[in-house]
Amino acid sequence: MTKLKKMLSEQKFGILATLGAEGPYQNIVAFAAGRNLKHVVFATPRETNKYKNLTANGSVSLFVDDRSNSERDLGEATGICAIGEATEIEGEKLKAALDLYSAKHPALKDFAESPATAMFSLRAAKYLMVTRFQNVLEIRP
Predict the structure, then answer these.
(1) How confident is the model at residue 132 (pLDDT cuts 50, 70, 90)?
(2) Dihedral over Cα of 129, 68, 106, 117: its sign
(3) Could you give the CA distance from residue 135 to residue 59 in angstroms, rounded to a whole number?
């Protein structure tokens, strides 16, 4: 659990996978994880395929890793896949999500607070942490 928390606090970007009419769709997103790891927040412009996919089907996964793009990755890299349901954050919970996101990504504060941007919460049902390209550990928050 310590490695999971460390990676989700240190890594700033991940690959979000959504499902659209034409099949799987992936995008790089900036994210921030809550302390209890039950929720991961991210922002997206409303006028994107990603937003369209998220509002049609909230089943998503977020992949985060610590690759260095070297041979050492064969033995040292860790990949984490958060699997869960993403929902748009509205109302009272929006300020807390924006604060969490902006604390990790201060350069994206204006983007996140724009009316053209939607903030989402991925409620993680489970995390799959893969080390050494084959050792898989399932973690439920």
Answers:
(1) confident
(2) negative
(3) 25
Measure the CA–CA gap between 33 and 17, rounded to whole angstroms.
17
> Tokens 């049902």 — which residue?
125
What CATH number is given to the structural domain containing 80? 2.30.110.10
Report the chain's mean pLDDT, rounded to a whole number.
94
pLDDT (tens digit per residue) in 61-119: 999 998 888 777 677 889 999 999 999 999 999 999 999 999 999 999 999 999 999 99
Amino acid at 115: P
The pTM for the full model equals 0.92
CA–CA gap between residue 86 and residue 121 (Å, rounded): 5
Q: How many domains does the chain have?
A: 1
Q: How many CA atoms lie within 13 A of 19 on its CB side?
A: 9
- Domain range for 106 is 2-139
